[in-house]
Structure formats: structure tokens, C-alpha cells
Amino acid sequence: MRSVLLAVSLLACHQAAAWSDHASLAWPMLRSDTHLMQPSVVVEPLDVFLEAEASGIAELLNRIEIAMIAGNPDYPPTPTALRFNASDVSDRRGRFIAALRISPRLEYSLYRQVMTDDVISASDETLAWSELSYLPSGDAEQERLYLSLSSGARVSPAHILSSASDEPDLGMDVGLYSDNDTEVGAQYGLGEQPFGNPNLPYGSQAPLHMGFYHLDALTQFAQPSLKRTLPLWRVIQYEELARLAFASGHEYWGWRFMGWALHYIGDLTQPYHTDPLPGVSLMSALWSLVMGETNDLIQLVSNRHGVLESYQYRRVQALMQQGAWQAPLLRSISEPQTACFTPDGVVSDLTAQSVVMGAALDATLSEQVPSRYVSDPSFEWVGSEFQTDVVALISAEVGDSAIDALDAELGLHLRRFSYYLQGWITHARTLARGAD
Ligand SMILES: [Zn+2]
Q1: DSSP state at residue 214
Q2: What angle in degrees, to the nearest 10, is found between the helix axes of 294-321 and 352-368?
Q3: Most buried of 21, 75, 174, 214, CB within 10 angstroms?
Q4: Cβ-contact 30, 161 below 8 angstroms
Q5: Which residues have CB atoms below 5 A from the ion given as ligand 1?
Q6: What gap in Å lies between CA 257 and CA 97, rounded to an integer?
Q7: Residue 277 lies in a domain
Q8: Which residue segment(s) compose the domain that 321 sits in?
Q9: Element (H or E) spanning 391, and its range?
Q10: Within a 10 A sphere around the Cβ of 62, how many other Cβ atoms?
């Protein structure tokens, strides 16, 4: 049993990003909201917020720490030396980053992502992914552009929220564990990386972007490290910071923190981020162990996850670039739904449903995508030359019926993504109005 579940841990090596480019995924919804599109928010550097609200920040981080310790036996407590001290005026930013236990390798600077329907003037200073993130970039990242923002400029909540919702994938959660060979890994008290390969550049963020909150009892017993997932902690940290920022008149940071939290909510709408082996029953996993085929099983699930991300990114991106906002896939994101969502629903609602939807998603991918990509355990999809042309390859090899079936399946998941996005926007508006 132990070996089957230890092998399961390898799976996480491949599963770091969930949806690809969260900012563009939220955009079909956000761009249609005339209120959120108004450039009404004054851009403010992080240092200004930290100096003005130091005591409130210290109080809320302390409150979160107490609640996390009380509510989650697998939560690794914050070392005392990292607790945010409001009366210490030295290096507030560095101490804030350490107190949150996020990567100090990002600057948390003032920027926003350039969206496909943006009008950029020649005088705008654009930035590439490599100027914001220290992580290696693939094709998808190299296609993105960002705009540097100046303190005091005005920007829309839609742009802040969408840009910030992709920020955790720039490397905020990479290299935080004690075996990651980083300075902060030795200080942050998160322990050894519970699963995933510590040597891969993205691998170490997996336990913070995946939430295995619905493991069966046998798996929990045999592989307790799978319980050490922490996205709910991140959601709570950032939602509480947003609440404070809105309540104290720092609207820019209110929306930005809500965007950071939204990243994890978006990740958890994807079944591959809530279940180590979607669509595989415990009996099948045990049978694979008996037959010595466990690694094959893991590779297949990993490849299906990778194909889903490549397909989602290429389909959504192409439609957005064509301005096909009425296409069914984009409408599955933009159509209004009545939704309200807070951190209270992460385990009981969001991830519980994601787990339920995993088997059908996995089956659709295995049935509709050429078997080489999703049913050949000797093949590695992630990093393969086929990622960019995934849609054309499926269309040529299987036919348009496969595209229709995959679009229908993806549409279901994007509609769910949008439900939680819209619920989160409703929650953010409530906080922004100071009504909660
Ligand atoms: Zn993520």
C-alpha cells in the first residue's frame, strides 16, 4: 500500500499550474462588467499599505495563526521569529513576506497584465514574463505582456483582480520547504515538501495549489503527507488581508489580495487539483499495485491533466484573440450566474464537487484525445513539442467530433470556474463597500 501511495506522490511533479493563465480565464467575465472596468482605483505601493496598517496586519495574522492551529492538525505553525511585529519599523516588506511565508524572490511590484482587447499606447512601458518572474517560461508565458503601473495612477478593479489571480503562478509559493535548498525553506517551518519532486522548478508549489480535502480513510492512513495541502490557508490569509485593506481605504490592495486568493479558488475548480487520481477507484489503484503498473497509472493521469491545460489555454486564447466573445466556450465564462462564495465553502462545496466531476473529465480526455497523448504510459506530454498545436492535432487525428466533445466537457468546468469567480467578485464587492 505504501508503495502505491508513494508512487502517487510522483504525480504532483507534473501538476503545478492547474489552469493556464488565470488572468485570461477570468477576463471574458470581467470585461463585461462596466462597473469593475472603470479605472477607479488609485495604485498604491505595498510599502505604503504596510506602513499605514502595520498594527492591523499584525493582529489579523496572529488571529489567522490561532485559527489555523486550532482547526487543522496538519497546519505547520509559523515560527515565532517570523511573526509580524507592528512596532518594528525596519524592512516591513521583508518581514511581511516572511510572516506570510511566501517567496522573497518576487518584488510584488505594481503592474497589470495586458489583455487581448487592451489598447496599448506607444508610451506604455511593457514588461515580459521574465521581468516579473524568476521561473523558466514556456511558450504560453512568453506570449504574455504586462504593463508597469505607477503609484498614484488609476486602474480598474477588473485589471487588478485578473492580473493578481495569476500572480501565485509567478513563483510566490516556490521553494518554501526545508528540502528545497533555499534560505527561506530553512526558516519558514513548513517542513519537508509533502509530495512532489523538490528539485523541479515548479514542483514545490504543488502542495499549496492542490487541496486533497476528500481523501478516503485508507489513503489518509497510508499516506498522511497527502493531507498536508494548504490552499485554504492561502485563501484565508489573502481574504483577511483584503478585508483589512478595503476597510482601511487601501482599495488597490483590497482587490489585489482578492485576486491572489482567487488563484487558489480557480485551481481548486480543476478536478486534477483536488484528487490525486481522478477516475481511479481505490480497488483499481490496488490492482495496479499488484500488477506492478502503478507508475503507468500515474503517468496517464499526469498526461491527461497536461493535455487538459494545453487544450484549455489554446482554445480560450484563440477565441479571445479573434474577439469571439459570443463563442460558447467564452460564454460559459461570461454568462452571469447568481453566486456567492466565501472561504467557508472551499472544502464543503468547491473541492467536494470538483472531486465528483473528476471521473467524467478523465474519461472524456481518455476517449477523445489520441491515445498516444493520454493512454501511453511511456509518453510524456508536459514539455512535449505537441503542446502548442494540441487543438489541430486532435482535430486531424480524431476529428471535429472530438473537439465538440472536449469543448462540451471544458465548458462544464469553465462554467463552474465562472460560478466561483462570480461568487468571489460578489464577496469582494461586499468587502469593498464595507458592508461585511
Ligand atoms: Zn496555481
Answers
A1: T
A2: 90
A3: 174
A4: yes
A5: 18, 169, 209, 267
A6: 13
A7: yes
A8: 2-42+103-432
A9: helix 390-397
A10: 14
Compute, in angstroms, the gap from residue 263 CA to the centroid of ligand 1. Answer: 6
For residue 89, tell me if it sits in a domain. Answer: no
Give which of 374, 370, 369, 379 is closest to 410, Cα–Cα: 369
Compute the CA torsion angle 325, 328, 334, 336 (nearest 10 deg).
140
Dist. CA 5–CA 272, nearest whole Å? 16
Quote the ligand 1 centre to 35 CA distance (angstroms).
28
User: Could you tell me the pTM of the whole model?
Assistant: 0.93
Q: How many A from CA of 219 to the centre of ligand 1?
A: 24
Amino acid at 43: V
303 Cα to the center of ligand 1, angstroms: 17
Do 14 and 302 touch, CB atoms closer than 8 A?
A: yes
- Name the phi and psi angles at 54, rounded to 5: -55, -45
Residue listed under C-alpha cell 495574522: 61
| pLDDT tens readout for residues 100-149 | 999 999 999 999 999 999 988 888 889 999 999 999 887 778 889 999 99
Q: How far is the CA of 211 from the centre of ligand 1 (A)?
A: 11
Which one is predicted more confidently, 16 or 17? 17
Distance from residue 80's CA to the centre of ligand 1 (Å): 28
Average pLDDT value for the chain: 90
Mean pLDDT to the nearest integer, 177-200: 86
Tens-digit pLDDT profile for residues 280-319: 777 777 766 666 666 777 778 888 988 998 999 999 999 9
**188: alpha, beta or left? (left if phi > 0; alpha if psi -120 to 50):** alpha
Q: Is residue 282 part of a domain?
A: yes
* Domain assignment of residue 57, yes or no: no
**Count of domains forming the chain:** 1
Report CA(168)–ligand 1 centroid distance (Å): 6
